[in-house]
Design brief:
Largest interface: A-B, 75 and 75 residues
Structural class of chain B: mainly alpha
Number of strands of chain A: 2
Largest sheet of chain A: 2 strands, antiparallel
Largest sheet of chain B: 2 strands, antiparallel
Strand order of the largest sheet of chain B: 1-2
Radius of gyration of chain A: 20 Å
Helix content of chain A: over 70%
Radius of gyration of chain B: 23 Å
Oligomer: heterodimer
Shape of chain A: globular
Number of helices of chain B: 14
Chain lengths: 348, 453
Amino acid sequence: MGFIWFWIVAVMLVIYVVLDGFDLGVGILHPLLARSERDRQIMLKSIGPVWDGNEVWLLAGGGTLYFAFPWLYASAFSGFYLALMIVLWLLIMRGASIELRMHIDIGVWRSFFDGLFFASSLLLAVFFGAALANVIRGVPLRADGYFFLPLWTNWRVGPEPGILDWYTVIGGVVALVALAIHGALYLAVKTEGELRERARAFVRRFWVVLFAVTVISLPATIAVVRADALANYRAYPVMFVIPLVVLLSLAGIIQFSHHLADHKAFASSCLYLSTMLVGAAGALYPRLLPSSNDPALDITVQNALSGPHTMRVGLIWWGLGMALAIVYFAVVYRMFRGKVSLDGGYGH
Amino acid sequence: MDALFLHRIHFAFTITFHYLFPQLTMGLALLIVALKTVAIRRHNERYNEAARFWAKIFAVNFLIGVVTGIPMEFQFGTNWAQFSRTTGGVIGQPLAMEGVFSFFLESAFLGLFLFGEKRLSAWAHWGSAFLVFLGSWISGFFIIVTNAWMQHPVAYSVLPNGSYEVTSFWGLLTNPWALLQYAHNMSGAVITASFVMCSVGAFYVLENRFSEQGRIFLRVGVIAGLISCVTQIFPTGDLHGRYMAKHQPAAVAGMEGLFSSAKGAPIVLMGQPDEQRQSIDNPIVINDVLSFLIYGTTRAEVKGLDQFPSDQWPAPLTLLFYSYHIMAGLGTYFALLMLVEGFLLWRGKLFQTRWALWPLLLSFPLPYIANTAGWMTAEIGRQPWLVYGLIRTSEGYSKNVSTGNTLFTLLGFMGIYSVLSILFIVLVYRTVLEGPSTDTLTLDTKAVPTTPA
């Protein structure tokens, strides 16, 4: 049961990153790719009808995490207190900037929200990457099952880590570059003309960076931060398929975008993000939040799982709810399929 | 400052601000469905224009509700970690169900409702409005189930490690407290939306601008207001109050300011409780009424605060007393006002009777106050318990978070919410001044006309 719920939560968060990832990416690229008011509107409109639904995966995933692993939820959320609150503020500002920008046709009003949209998207990407890196690195859990981390201490991965240190900052940079490329590939799919060309050019220019930070993050994890990161992989060598797919999907991003196959390139990027996260989750299991000083204090699937009745009943309603959610998403993405145009909505 | 106090204020501030928006979302969603139904059934395009106008306000209101709602779910973990750890297996369930069953539905169909009118048939667009309404009311239900379990825990058992587990899924969802609270709360949300709609309608009719639309708003607002204001008192308020008297007698004693038990207990209409002397200054009372309201007979004995040890008294007691009295007083005013307005509407005189339009114009803030006061009654009445009778509030907060951090984020939320308030007011003000037009809400610049400076 713990295994099932671990992967349920993991998959919900993977879907969140893949979906909200592209609209965060659009936000990061907003000042870089848009040259005119028309470009800015098209970029916003490409995510307008879907960003809110994408973000729901974070809420639904968070809620599922809460009821499946209450101790993890309590310990992690209070321990990462300040970072989490900043993420909440960024989500508030980002939502407001997307929705309120178009209400008033005044230059400074729109520029203000453009700036807010860019900054909040960028910082969210960095924080999400750093959050995952924190979980991989582990936290100084105390015997009572709690911990508290300041935002930063000495930027070192040591006995007194902060939420931000050199390792978690690398995680943030990986997320930033990966989501920017993800957003560019989405824009290549959803737009036409010069904007699409600029999005494609961005990918051609920056895939090297993504390749570099991906390659750096792996030895940093295995050699420096978490020596036992490969334990699961050694026990089940078939798991080495996952990093292989990461590399293949990176190659796919490069190859397909050189051949202007936008849809396939975007699909490769989805695959890249999913396999990166699944690879990390696979290395972590059955730990949910490892202790950085004593493995006996790890929060694990076994010791954090809610009562058996709760989890059994949960499977039933969760399955039903997900089936409905998939139908809604199919309807919405179908309604708003095709290229974005400013006049007359979506489609051809 | 003490940590417990700061965590309480943190939650109280963020949730009070948050709930200013969903109450309008939920009420307005119902009224928009009503407008669209009339538009289709009577082939009246005016009602579609009205629905489009309210959709614009709905969109801004919904957005602020969403962005201020996200922190609520996360604050259970950040600020109330010990509570979350022990009860997550129970209350995490309705919270997760809210995400899975309501937020996906709402977010998906809100986009279709706001952006899809040109691409959908009339009934399909009605359907998207209906699903947004359904989603918001489902969301409300799961939140009430969560709160009701804290007010009146049912269907649980305690595991060996001290955490709580659900023993009956349906028992949790059909907690009688939840059903009563839900009915009372949703009726309160419809009151807010009715008063807001009436206020804009009265403004248009009094100003003689968009007065045709103004009359539609008044008609729909007064009818919905009359129904919801009456059901707010009877049966929902009445039943909820009696159930509460049975299961949280100390809270009811505090609400009523009843310091000592009495047969034929009086109701205090107004007064200032004095906790030290255990009496009420300047009381205006009617004898026997409280006994009658709770037990249906004037001779029944109602338990006073003297029946409970002082460490089980709800606190702060005086704030509980005032919250309850503000809620009940305003609720009575709403019902009386709507009876008068409803009568005038029925006689066909409402739109010409200027003195009757003024209170409708001015009363729209009052339901927000009444709903807030109602929730304060519920939440302060539950004190000193976080989960009634099981977990004290002082046991639930995050002891690993220092007061410096809590105050920092509380001030941060206050700052951000101040800015959100200003943006909200500016945008709604503009929308009301622009008035209903035939434009659909799109991201197209042409559809968002600029007001001349």
